[in-house]
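Hi C.,

You asked whether I'd gotten around to modeling the 506-residue construct. I have! Everything is below, sequence then structure, no commentary in between.
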Amino acid sequence: MTVSRPDNGRAEETGRPLVRMTAVRKAFPGVQAVGNGEFDLRRGEIHALVGENGAGKSTLIKILTGVHQPDRGTIEIDGQPIDFRSPIEARRAGISAIHQEFTLVPAMTVRANLFLGRERTHRGIIDNNFERTQCQPVLNRLGLSIDSDTLVSELTVAQQQLVEVARALLSDCRVLVMDEPTAALAPREVEALFEILREITGRGIGVIFISHRLDEIFEIGDRITVMRDGFTIDTRSSQNYTRRQLIEQMVGRSLEDEFPRHRPAPKDICFVVRNLAGPGLGPISFAVKRGEVLGLAGLMGAGRTELARLIFGADPAISGEVELDGRRLSISSPRDAIRSGICLLTEDRKRQGLVLGASVEENFALPNLRSWSRFGWINKKKERSRFAGRVAALSIRVTGPDQPAEHLSGGNQQKLLVARWLETDSKVIIFDEPTRGIDVGAKYETYLLINELAAQGKVIIVISSELPEVLGISDRILVMREGEISGEISDPKTAKHEDVMALAVS
């Protein structure tokens, strides 16, 4: 289906581009990061830059913002050739970047963060009154009803995102780069951010928008540029792309289906949650069949992650019980859950799932050391053998067992976690936001993996904030609202987004 969107009139169709990057190349030792980068940005335009991890997007943007210098190629701002040697030079030229990992200082006030590095002083003393009068109107315009002397640590993620935008506006930016700006935002917060982006582009600011969420790309982007393997593949109006065309250009191959669901029909019920309750949650009851993929949908704060943590023993339950294969389980900690055959792949795999500084093999081994040990000694040969087997079976791309986990792509980090839990012989696998922050190719591989696990008879529970995803991969969906199950979608293949949202908000 072709995705169409009325012309909002923001982007200038003619005239000199605000930014033009031509034949840009950049290589690092052993890696050609950008082989031929072509990109331009118009005034008042939101231009989406998409591609898989490693496609060259980040390197191209780092060149534009002065972090890296190109090996060859030209960059023009307002028709004038530039050669930024540092991010400071880029910011002085009006180019600001908001990264997925915020650069705010939590222990400082909003005002101090907004003027950090360019404080107004008099005889060595910061002019606080001047800064307040300058920043408060900008905060108000962005809908931030907070005092400028509030500590950043007291703000929500959405508010911190807007503080980053305010900092860019105060620096008189002409180009705003946003890298995965919605990754940690709720749907209502995303829409509020989009309204602000439409407002600032209406004043002639150009926005470069980078995201793996295709629905957002089509909603907010005027044009889309696709990169793959360091090369610019295509640039066209978002109205001239279909979702399928965009995905196939990003991955470089034809996909039979964005959400493959080739797996046997679910069998008998084997996992039961009965009257499970925790603080602000439940009581909740449901049952899942062997080989079934059960989706959990709902707005942020609906209780989906909290339910997963109760099942896994990460949070204490007030009441209720869990049964697996007809046996009532006694779960008071994650260790109990793991021994019972239940595992949880958390939404924040970097902070709660992996030890990033440890090797991939050490991460794989963490919950399995007991089975490979005797008299307190770990059988390293068996550990290495089991790790190699799982790496081959799941096609995990690693340079070797000693590679640090932090150097893996998001998709391979997810596979490493799955390998770890498969080694524990888990029967129930809970995926919390399994494709957050990974590209479309890695998403497809994750869906194939979920199919494979379900075909093995595993119980799969998937929590996802992306409605196309939860509708596309689930056999059945439970929708949560305010800590309770508000309804069920028994046939996701025929359901619409509106059906899920109606249950999530009504």
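If it helps when you're writing up: Residues 256-341+427-445+457-506 form a domain with the Rossmann fold fold (CATH 3.40.50.300).

Thanks,
B.
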